[in-house]
Specification:
With about 90 residues, the chain is of the alpha+beta class. It is built from 2 helices and 6 strands; from the N terminus they run ββαββββα. It starts with 17 loop residues before the first strand and ends in a 16-residue tail after the last helix. The structure holds zinc ion (2 copies).
């Protein structure tokens, strides 16, 4: 098949967004898109815990990402590799 069967009502994905040409939902990224596809079928994003923001389904931040963000917030921006400093010098 070529092209899509999308109507003009479909939200046009921008950036990393991914639009499903089967159920015509738009996801914030490939991860969300993959998440709603199970065994060749589309699942309702709402039942997967996704949240509709505007016309785009976004996955809530998972626990790992949340912890990583929290760690980053404490540690600040990552040091630039190659700059002289004190590697491993965590107090
Ligand atoms: Zn779909
Ligand atoms: Zn569509």
């Amino acid at each position: 098949m070529t092209g899509t069967s999308c109507s003009v009502d479909c939200h046009r994905p921008t950036g990393n967004a991914a639009h499903c040409t089967v159920c015509h939902q738009t996801f914030g990224g490939v991860t969300g898109f993959d998440g709603h596809r199970k065994e060749g079928r589309c699942l309702d994003p709402a039942t997967l815990g996704m949240e509709l923001r505007g016309q785009i389904w976004k996955r809530p931040m998972d626990e790992n990402a949340r912890l990583r963000m929290a760690a980053l917030a404490v540690a600040g921006p990552e040091p630039v590799p190659g700059t002289s400093g004190n590697p491993g010098g965590v107090s």
